[in-house]
Amino acid sequence: MSHKLIGIALMLALIENFAGCISLTSIPTSASFSFVTLEQGHYSGVQESLERVIQTYKEWKIFWEQHQSGVVRQQPVQINFPHVSAIAVFVGGRSDGRYSVEITSVVREKNHITVTYQEVIAEGNCKYIAAATHPYHIVLTLLNKVMVVE
Question: What average pLDDT does the structure give for the chain?
Answer without folding.
Answer: 78
